[in-house]
Amino acid sequence: MTTRLLCPACGNTAPLTTTQFRCACSEPLDAVHEPVAVSRQLFDSRLGRTEFPYDSGVWRFKELIHPDLPMDKVLARPEGNTPLFRAGKVGTWAGVANLRLKHEGYNPTGSFKDRGMTVAASHGYANGANAFVCASTGNTSAAVASYGALAGIPAVILIPENATAMGKISQALAYGARTVQIRGNFDDAMSLVQDAASELGLYLLNSLNPFRVQGQKTIMFELLQQLNWQAPDWIVFPAGNLGNTSAFGLALTEAHALGLIDRVPRMLAVQAAGSAPFSASFAEDFRSIEAVSPQTVATAIRIGNPVSFNRAVRSIRATNGVVTHVSDTDILEAKAIVDAFGIGAEPASCASVAGVRQMVDRGLIAPGDSVVALLTGHLLKDPDTTLRYHQGEYGGGHCNPPVTIDATLEALAAVVSGSENPQ
Ligand code: F0G
């Protein structure tokens, strides 16, 4: 075996087959691999391959995420291989000429979650899981439901009632997951699911599962490969439960140690102002973390008590990283700009672009820096918020409301010439 499960706090190890992802000291376990010889050439030689599983932008990096997993246990759609867009006028708005947008909404279920899920679900499948379970603000649940369907393993998902975007609930139902709405928020669901996993014998697929974190590292590996292994100055992304923050710091330091890149980019993790315990903790040099009662229009990151706090702190420190927060108004404006560029993303995703603009204004990011901002979920995940914005409910300055006319050429001509009186 080349992988161990290790407690970063007390150094205890656990068998690879364990389904208890917290050490007895309560710290989440990490998956740690023996160093392997890999190279840019190895990963580049797999680009464009069509055979399973190297056609996946996750399993292309198998040596770095789950080297021991037998190939016949890999559950892959395939996932990853997401575009890295030049940001055009989004960059102009944010104040950075060399801005790129890595769009994880182009994964099979429409968010980055598929990357961690293919690895953790495969690990559970290989170890005889009877049922999958997760708590979720929506995207994780869609991915769990989908990979459960692929494996033929029943999935149970716990989501907050009245705070989960419609697209995501639709997916969970359509893929056949037992969908449980909790009277409470994500943090309540997260606490319940940990008890449920151990008491009811369900296999936990939240990012507490160290194999989720391993899979999410490939967002970094893939974007570095797309940049021809030239590290950008900054990597910017939205942060909620801090799985990505944890995974990205690991990936970047590993890529550097393996010689895939010659310097470590800085990370900027961006929270929504009403759900920003990690940002508040950063401002106090991470001395402690205070859970908050979460609020934000960006329901994906409406999280007040992130599970992966310590892991994420290590990642921020290892990358000379920064944590900030942006208001809902700024998130929605950034979303309107990303959407109007013809790309689009769900609200939480656009916290990253709002964060870039904020840090250019503050002088931390220079206009000449190279920056990659992550878009974590697809525009169609949360059509309600987009419609409400364009109907003026949030008072934003980029509204594009629909007009209703009689079916006459005259009325249409008035719309086309811009002289109509919108109804
Ligand atoms: N962006 C989107 C679209 C998300 O769905 C999430 C998390 C994040 C960002 C934050 O990532 O938790 O790794 O810091 N969604 C989880 C879910 C919580 O249940 O779908 P994180």
Question: From the alpha-carbon coordinates, what is the Rg to the nearest angstrom?
Answer: 21 Å
- Give the class from helix and strand content and strand pairing: alpha/beta
| SSE sequence, one letter per element | EEEHHEHEHEHEHEHEHEHEHHEHHEHH
Q: Report the sheet-strand fraction.
A: 5-15%
Total beta strand runs: 13
Q: Give the mean pLDDT.
A: 97
Explain what you see.
There is one protein chain. With 423 residues, the protein is an alpha/beta fold. It has helices at residues 40-45, 62-65, 88-94, 113-126, 139-151, 166-175, 186-200, 210-226, 243-257, 277-283, 309-318, 328-340, 347-361, 383-390, 409-417, and strands spanning 3-6, 13-14, 30-33, 84-86, 98-103, 132-135, 155-160, 178-182, 203-204, 234-238, 266-272, 322-326, 370-375. It has a 6-stranded mixed β-sheet, with helices on both faces. A 4-stranded parallel β-sheet has the order 8-7-6-9, sandwiched between helices. Strand 1 (3-6) and strand 2 form a beta hairpin. Helix 4 (113-126) packs parallel to helix 5, helix 4 packs across helix 8 and helix 8 (210-226) crosses helix 9 (243-257). The chain starts with a strand and ends in a 6-residue tail after the last helix. The relative contact order is 0.13. Bound molecules: ligand F0G. Ligand F0G binds at residues 111, 113, 136-140, 207, 238-245, 300-301, 346, 348-349, 376-377.
Quick recap:
The chain has about 425 residues and is of the alpha/beta class. It is built from 15 helices and 13 strands. The strands form 3 sheets. Strands 4-5-13-10-11-12 form a 6-stranded mixed beta sheet, with helices on both faces.
